[in-house]
Amino acid sequence: MASDQSLLQVLVVEDDLGDLALVENAFADHSVSSTLHHVADGADALAFLRRENGFADAPRPDLILLDLNMPRVDGRQVLDQIKHDDDLRSIPAIVFTTSAATPDIVASYRSHANAYVTKPIDLDDFDRVVSEIRNFFGHTASLPHRETDSPSS
Q: Which positions carry 4-aspartylphosphate (predicted)?
């Protein structure tokens, strides 16, 4: 019941500030209490997740929205590192990118992406898609931070 338990912590890994603004608007306008954390590339995403290089106080995200095409370390590399890290692999990682290329989709799922969503070009569709992601992870899905300490039967 604590407020931090009901607050959805979302890490948005996105180098396009226009797309970031659209994601922020979609989260701000609706019913899921959330805090968005933003990093502009994969290197900072990994530092955030590992609480390194200026991110010592970073919260553990409940959800990662991950662009594929970014400078320094791209989303493919980030996804691969997250899903091979025992401490991070349980965090849902949604690839949210402009690419609709079959090789990107297949590679993302092979790297254990929890979903692959192509960013819509239409603004209303973009808002709808982000809202559906937000509502699913904010209302429908059971996330690790919401589990109780009691063992399951």
A: 67
Q: Structural domains in the chain?
A: 3-139 (3.40.50.2300)
Query: What is the C-alpha separation between 49 and 89, in angstroms, rounded?
Result: 11
Kindly report the pTM of this predicted structure.
0.88
The β-bridge partners of 123 are: none
Give the model confidence (pLDDT) of 76-90 as tens digits: 999 999 999 999 999
Rounded Cα distance between 153 and 75, Å, is 37
| Cβ atoms 70, 40 nearer than 8 A | yes
Tell me how far apart the alpha carbons of residues 88 and 112 are, in angstroms, rounded to a whole number. Answer: 12
CB 42 within 8 A of CB 77: yes
